Give the backbone structure.
Amino acid sequence: MNKIPVAVLGGTGYAGSTLCALLDRHPRFDLRFATARTRGELRPEGSTRAVPVLPLDDAPLDEAGVVFSALPHGVSAPWVSRAREAGARVVDLSADLRPGSGARGVPYGLTELAREELRDATVVANPGCYPTAVLLAIAPLLRRGLIAQGATIATTAASGVTGAGASPKRELLFAEVSENYRAYGVGNAHRHVAELQATVARHGVDADLIFTPHLLPVARGILATVTVQIAEPIADPSALWRADFAGEPFVEVVDAPPSLRDVVGRNVARVHVTAAANARRPTLIVLSAIDNLLKGAGGQAVQNANVMLGLDECAGLPR
Amino acid sequence: MNKIPVAVLGGTGYAGSTLCALLDRHPRFDLRFATARTRGELRPEGSTRAVPVLPLDDAPLDEAGVVFSALPHGVSAPWVSRAREAGARVVDLSADLRPGSGARGVPYGLTELAREELRDATVVANPGCYPTAVLLAIAPLLRRGLIAQGATIATTAASGVTGAGASPKRELLFAEVSENYRAYGVGNAHRHVAELQATVARHGVDADLIFTPHLLPVARGILATVTVQIAEPIADPSALWRADFAGEPFVEVVDAPPSLRDVVGRNVARVHVTAAANARRPTLIVLSAIDNLLKGAGGQAVQNANVMLGLDECAGLPR
Amino acid sequence: MNKIPVAVLGGTGYAGSTLCALLDRHPRFDLRFATARTRGELRPEGSTRAVPVLPLDDAPLDEAGVVFSALPHGVSAPWVSRAREAGARVVDLSADLRPGSGARGVPYGLTELAREELRDATVVANPGCYPTAVLLAIAPLLRRGLIAQGATIATTAASGVTGAGASPKRELLFAEVSENYRAYGVGNAHRHVAELQATVARHGVDADLIFTPHLLPVARGILATVTVQIAEPIADPSALWRADFAGEPFVEVVDAPPSLRDVVGRNVARVHVTAAANARRPTLIVLSAIDNLLKGAGGQAVQNANVMLGLDECAGLPR
Amino acid sequence: MNKIPVAVLGGTGYAGSTLCALLDRHPRFDLRFATARTRGELRPEGSTRAVPVLPLDDAPLDEAGVVFSALPHGVSAPWVSRAREAGARVVDLSADLRPGSGARGVPYGLTELAREELRDATVVANPGCYPTAVLLAIAPLLRRGLIAQGATIATTAASGVTGAGASPKRELLFAEVSENYRAYGVGNAHRHVAELQATVARHGVDADLIFTPHLLPVARGILATVTVQIAEPIADPSALWRADFAGEPFVEVVDAPPSLRDVVGRNVARVHVTAAANARRPTLIVLSAIDNLLKGAGGQAVQNANVMLGLDECAGLPR
C-alpha cells in the first residue's frame, strides 16, 4: 500500500517531536519533513532514520497529503491556511482554531465526541491537553444531560512540565520545579477555559465550569479531578461510564483511581468515577488521566488524521 | 526562667521527629524523653544533644508537664488518658479525639479558630494536616456564613509523601512515587472527611464538603484547592480574607498562588483567594499551602501548647 | 513453531516482574507460571493476559524447559538444583553461582564475554547489574591486556533505586531518596566486588579494582565511571572500543557521554571512552550506562537463554 | 558595633542570591545593594526587607567596604579591579582569578588551606564548588605527602543542577533532568580541572588528578568520590583525617558515608575516608559532601570575608 506523505510544522518542541516519532513508525504515513528555525535533520526517538528539517518559509507544503501544525499559538493559523491552499489536509495542534478562539466552522477533534464530523474534514482543531482530560471525564454527563441545573463543574488538574513546552524558562528549571507544586492561571484565567466552556455550552448545560491547573514535578502526564452535583443519584456511575464509552479503543473506564504511570507512553484516557459518600446532594467525583504528549497532543492528532483519512483509527498508536 | 519539661510519645515517625526538633530548640520547653519501640536515644535534626528514648511502657509520664502524642491512630487515646492521669497536659496529634471521631468535649486545636478554647484546656486534639490546609482556606467563609445555600465545597488537595508516614510500604518507595501522581481515598473516603465535615457543620453551613486527596512526588507540603459557590459576589475577596486573618502570626494571605516551597520549613499557611471569571454564579477559588509536618502537625502542636500554657504563641516556631 | 515453556521463580520483585514482561512478549517462549509468596496471578506490564502465580513449593518445575530464578541471594541456589533435577535449563539471576561466590563450573553469563561457553550450558549465572556495566566498560582493556601494571581500576557507579529491590525499607522511601545522593558499600564492601575482582583476575590483569556504588534519586538505570592508567597511550581509544565490540547487537560505543535516558527501557550498554588530557601517565576514562532491570538483570537473562537455546540472540529484547 | 557596608555584584543567580540571603542576616555586614541587569529590588530568602538592585554601571562601588562578585566567569575580573580602585576589599566567586586561570598573586580562598594568607588579603579568589569538595577530601594527603608516587587521583563528583546556574537552558529543564544522570566535561575537560591541578601541583605531589563531573537530578549539593593509591598503608585513616582537621569549624569527619541531605543548608564539608579491602596496593576512598551554594560558593565567600576582616570566622554562617 502506498504511504501518504505527511509533514510536521514545528517539530522540535515536546509535542512536535512526539508527533514525529509517532509518524515515523506509522504504517501508512511517510514523514517527509519537519520544520524548525534552522535547517538540518532530526532523528525521531527510537528511530534509526533522519528526517529533513527546513525553515518554515522553505517548506514544500504541496508535497504533503497531511500537514500537522505544532506551531505556537498565534503563529499557526496562517500556516494552516497556506497548507490548505497547497492542497493538504491539516491537523492543527495549536489553540488558534479551537472552540472559544473565535474561529468558526473548524471541527474540534476530541475524537470520541466528534468522530463523524472528522471523516471528511479538511482541517481539524486538535484539542488542548487539559480539555482532553477534562472533557473525556465528563462526556457521559454532557451527552446525557445529567448535571444538576446551576451546578458548578469544579475542575482541578495537574500537569507534568512538558505541558509548558520546551522553551527554556527559569520557572521550568529542575531546580525550581523539584519538590515544588503550585496552581497557576487561577480564576478561570487559563487559555484552555474558553475551549472547555464552549464545549460545555454546546451541550446546552446550565453549569459553570471552573478550571484550576497545577504544575507537577513530573515530566509527563495530566490528571484531572472533577467534582460536580448531578440532577439525580446514579445507581452505578461506573456502569454508566462504561456504557457511554463502549467500544472506544482509547478510553479505559477503571475501578481504581488512575495514576499517571498507567497512561504515560500510551494514547489512552483512563477514567474513574465515584459517587461522594456523605453528601446531601448527589455528587460525583470523576478522575481522568492522560499522557499530555500523546492523547493530549501528538497521539490524538494521529488518531484524528487516521479518522480523517478513513484509516484504522488505531494505526500507529501505542495502547 | 524555668523550662517546662515535655515528652513526645512516638518520636521516630516523620511528625514525631519534626516535633522533637522543634521542642529541642524551644526556649521554654525542655524535651525530657521520647518513646519508640526500642530503648536508645535520638538526636533531633540540627541538634548536638541526644534525647533519651524509652519504650512506651517505661515512659515516666509524671515527669512531663506537657505530653505530645504522635502515636498512631487507634493507639493514642489510652495513652492520652494515662498522661492525663499522671498530671500532664496533652496535645494529641492522632485522629483519636478529633471532631468526627466520636470523642466529645476535646477542643479542636486549629489554633486560629479555637484560640480562646485552648487557653485552659488540659487536652487538645491537634488537627489533621489536610483539614488544617482546607479549613484555613475557607475559615472566612465559614465564620461569616458566605457560602451559597446547597453549595458543594469542592476540595482537592495534594500532599507530599511524608503525610503517609515513615512506615515502609511498597507504594511509598521512590521507584513507585517518582514521575507519578494519583488520587486516593476518593468519594469522601479519606479519614479526614469526618473531621472536615464536623467542623463545617459546627458553623451551621448548609453545604456538602467533598474532599479528594492526591499523592505528590515531593517529600513535604500540602496544597489544597477549594472551589465554592458563594451566596453573593464579594467585591474584593482578598481584602476580606486579609481582614479575617488580621493579626494572625501564622497565616499569610498572598496575591499570587502559593507554592509548596513558600511554606516548607515554616509553621505558616499561605492562602490565596480569587473570584472565578466567566461564571454565572459567584464562585471563589481558594488555595492554601502548608508544610504538612509543621503547620499540619508538629508546628501546630507546639503552637497549641504555647497557647495552652500562656506562652508567646510564636515561641520556638519557624516563620 | 512450538514455543518453549518457561517459568520465573520470584516474579514479583522489580527484576522478576521485568523478566515476566519480557518473557510474556517473547516470540519463542511461553511463560507458564511464576512463583511468589501467595498463590494468585500476575499481569505482566503491557500485557492483557494473566500468568498463574504459585508458592515455590507448589511449582511444577518439570513443566518448564527453562527456569529463570530471580529469588533472593542465598535462597536461589537450592532451587536451581531442584530445577536442574527436574530437567530444566536454568538462568540464575541471584549472586549464588557467580564468580567469587565459591560456586564452581557455572558459566558467567556476561553474554558478550562468554557467548561460546553459554551455548551448551545447562545453568548460567546471570551477572549483577553493576558488574555488567563495569565489565562492559573495560572489556577491551581486559581482553587486550592494556591496563598498566600495578594500576588501580578506580570505579564509581550510580544506580537507580530499583537496583535495591522492591522490599519496602525506610531508606528507599521517596521521602528519603528525593533530593539526596550518597555512596554505600564503600571500601570494596559491596557484594559485587568479588564478582568484579574474580573476572578481572581471570584475565590475568595485575591491577586493583576498587568499586564505590552510589544511590541515585531515579527509578532505573546505572552509570559506571572508570578511571584507569594504561600501559601505553592509545591513539584513538574510541576506535579500539568500536573494533572490540564490532557486531555486538547490545553494545553501543558512542561519541558523547551516555545518559541514563539513552538506555532505560532498552537491553543495551552505551559505552564512551576518552583519554584524560593533562595527565603525565596515559589514563582513560570509560563511561557505561545500562538499564539495571534489562541489560543489568532480566534482559540479559533472556539474552543468555536465547544463546543457550540457539535462538536469535535478539529475540524478545527491546533495542 | 558598626556594621560593615557590603555589596554583591550579580545578585540574581543561585550563588548570588544565596550570598545575599547570608549577608542580609549577617551580624556584622550591612548589605547595601546588589547588581543585576535591571534596576529594582530583591528580597533575600527568609528576609522581610528589600535590597536595592542596580545595573552594574550604576553601582556605587565606593560605598562598600567589601564587594562580593558573583559575576560570570570572564565578566568578573575587570569589576574586581574597579572595586579595588574604589577602595573595597573583594571576594571574587568567579573563576577569573583562581589558580590555573593565569592570574597571579591572588590568594585562593579554600579557607581551611589558606587561612593565614587571607587575613590581610585585599582580593581573594573564592574556590569553585567542585574543587572545594575535592580538595577538602584530599587535603590531609596533600599536606602530609602521603600519595603514592606516580599515582592517579581518580576523582568523580556529582552535582545538583544549581551548580550550572540559573540561566534557562533546555538541558536544565525539569523534563530533561528528572530520572536522568550523566557525566559531562569528561577527559579532564571541565573548567575546574586547572584549579584542581594547580593546587595539587603547589603541594609538590607527583600524581595525576583526573576529574569527571556528573549532573544529578537534585537541586543542591555535591558529592565527590576520590580513589587514590597511597605510599604506605595508614592504620586508621579516619583518625588521621580527624587530626588533620582538628578545630576546623566547617569540616566534619564522619564514620559513615555522607549524603547530600547531611549538608544541604549548611556551610560545612562532611568527609569520610576508608581503606579499600582486597587491594594489593594500599588505596583510600575519600568521600566529601558539600552544599554547592554554601561551602561551595556563597557560604565560603562569607567565611573568607570573615577571616579577611578579622571577624569571628563563623559569623552569619549556618552550621
The CA atoms of residues 119 and 309 of chain C lie 7 Å apart. Residues 129-144 of chain C form the longest helix (16 residues).
